[in-house]
Design brief:
By secondary structure, the chain is mostly helical. The chain has 2 domains: about 190 residues, no CATH class; about 140 residues, no CATH class. It is built from 17 helices and 2 strands. Helix 15 packs antiparallel against helix 16. It is globular and about 55 Å long.
């Protein structure tokens, strides 16, 4: 049996995607070869999910090179693709800023996020049918603490173009959480609506597990604010149980029975795997976490600690070997 520390060393962050082609293009971008990234973005224009995931991955890969990406437009590259990539590179940089509590830190973060909006707004204007810029703007709005009207406006822009866009539904649930000015009822209503609009075989119902994670995180924060230690707060909330877990199980089973390959499958498996592990349902938790291979997604594990440590601990407890389905030889040393 592998220990948690052994598993941690084997995990590969999924920030550069799980497709070997996408990861290879990100590797090239890290080395300064940006041409393949433009080709890949062009190839995804008719696949909204792939386009959003590729834009996010390329943004992380070019986080140190937004100026180099911007210069591609001078060589005749598609301006909308370039601006989408620049926006994601700037967004990745903003998300890496220290999460300080000082006024200077907050102002620095706000300035960085406002800068992100410029290329994304322009990308949206140049390609009106593309939901990818709007999905990124939704993340920016959440980071800036936008009011409900602005959140709803961006949500309409996205769903008018792609009603079942997985990452946008995840952001919607988080944006309506009590910690961001929403309510528990609104958050769970949004998650339930996501499950309702999911096409058959789509992983979108896993967003309901994210709502449960957000709720538990908020409750833990409340208990800590009331003077409980983090460990006591975590233990005090206990496991997921009862009707909510049965609802998640039914959704996960339906997805598994009708699953169609999807670029966000690994993220969905992590969401369901976390939920069933938290519920003490070892068999479904083991199945879902076994399906992720070596790929580690931050959400929802990062709500409760260092994500790789949390994932590795759950896998070790369940007896999951992350290398059992290792087929693409991804290099964990190329991603932080």
């Amino acid at each position: 049996m592998l220990r948690g520390t052994d598993i941690d060393a084997l995990l590969v962050p999924a920030g550069y995607g799980t497709d070997p082609v996408v990861r290879a293009v990100c590797e090239a971008a890290l080395e300064g070869d940006l041409g393949p990234g433009l080709t890949l973005l062009a190839d995804t224009r008719d696949d909204h999910h792939a386009r959003v995931q590729v834009a996010e991955a390329l943004g992380r890969a070019a986080v140190e090179r937004p100026g180099d990406v911007a210069e591609l437009a001078e060589d005749g590259a598609d301006q909308a693709d370039v601006l989408l990539w620049v926006g994601h590179a700037l967004l990745s940089g903003a998300q890496r800023r220290p999460a300080g509590s000082s006024q200077a830190d907050r102002k620095g973060m706000e300035a960085a996020l406002h800068e992100v909006r410029i290329p994304l707004d322009n990308a949206a204007e140049l390609r009106p049918d593309d939901p990818a810029p709007w999905a990124a703007l939704q993340t920016v709005a959440m980071g800036l603490g936008a009011d409900r009207d602005e959140k709803d406006r961006l949500w309409r822009e996205i769903t008018d173009r792609a009603p079942a866009l997985f990452p946008a539904h995840m952001t919607r649930v988080r944006a309506l959480s009590p910690t961001r000015g929403g309510t528990t009822e609104e958050m769970f209503a949004a998650a339930g609506a996501s499950a309702d609009v999911a096409p058959e075989g789509d992983p979108l119902p896993a967003v309901l597990a994210l709502a449960h994670a957000e709720h538990l995180r908020g409750e833990e924060k409340r208990l800590v604010a009331e003077g409980k230690s983090p460990d006591i707060a975590h233990l005090g909330l206990g496991r997921l149980h009862g009707e909510p877990v049965q609802e998640l199980f039914d959704l996960a089973r339906s997805w598994a029975e009708h699953a169609v390959p999807h670029v966000y499958d690994v993220q969905a498996h992590h969401l369901f795997g976390w939920a069933f592990h938290r519920a003490g349902m070892q068999d479904p938790a083991r199945w879902h976490l076994g399906a992720v291979g070596r790929y580690a997604c931050d959400l929802p594990w990062s709500f409760f600690g260092a994500p790789r440590v949390e994932i590795a601990g759950a896998m070790a407890e369940l007896g999951v070997d992350p290398t059992a389905h290792d087929t693409d030889g991804a290099d964990p040393d190329r991603e932080s």
